[in-house]
Amino acid sequence: MNKTTGESRELAEALVNALSDCEHKIMIAPPFTSLQTVHQVVKGTNILLGAQNMAEASGGAHTGEISASLLKDVGVSVVIIGHSERRLIYGESDELINKKVHRGIQSGLEVILCVGETLEQRNRGEAVAVVKAQIERGFEGIPEESLDKITVAYEPVWAIGTGKNATPEDADEIHFTIRESLKKIYSRQAGENMVIQYGGSVKPANIKALMAMENIDGVLVGGASLAAETFVPIARYNQ
After folding, report:
1. Domains contained in the chain, number
2. CATH number, residue 220
3. Is 155 a catalytic residue?
4. Quick check: is 83 catalytic?
5. How many helices (H) and strands (E) does the chain have?
6. Of residues 187, 96, 92, 181, the one with CA closest to residue 131
């Protein structure tokens, strides 16, 4: 819940200018109120427009919600589903998140499915079990042929907005768990092909160490995405 429409436009323009030749896949997800404005800036560029959330329903009497068709109408091609704040603050269940994943895919959107454990769960030694269960429930009923539309983002809840971050080794362990879970649900190839991002206080100072890990394919950036000065070095970590 950051950036007015004017601020969003200014940041999007700075990112388009700074990342026009970046070799990586880049997506930015401003608030709903800024989507149309930012779309005018990024359309035709190498930066994709994402939304931070989406309703499980296709339309109708769902006051306060935003459907996939409304998002697509303003240029959105990617949607973040199951973000830790949606799970923890707003009580979104694995069942609801799974419905949103289905809706996103059916609507032709790419989906970023977020999973991750709380500090209490990690301290109890439950991190692997919690994330494995979130993966199993999140992918329930999703056919293997639709997996190329899904990216998984591992967010250790205790590392978001706290300044703390999992060590690259901690993150890679959970990423490995996610990959192995998908291999069991689908196939070896499905698990190996899945793009798995890390999200948890990602910043220029730790991006290289994270991306050096075998099972970390990318990052879902939070606070550091609010300024070009911190986001651009992350996007260009290997340049």
Report:
1. 1
2. 3.20.20.70
3. yes
4. yes
5. 11, 7
6. 181
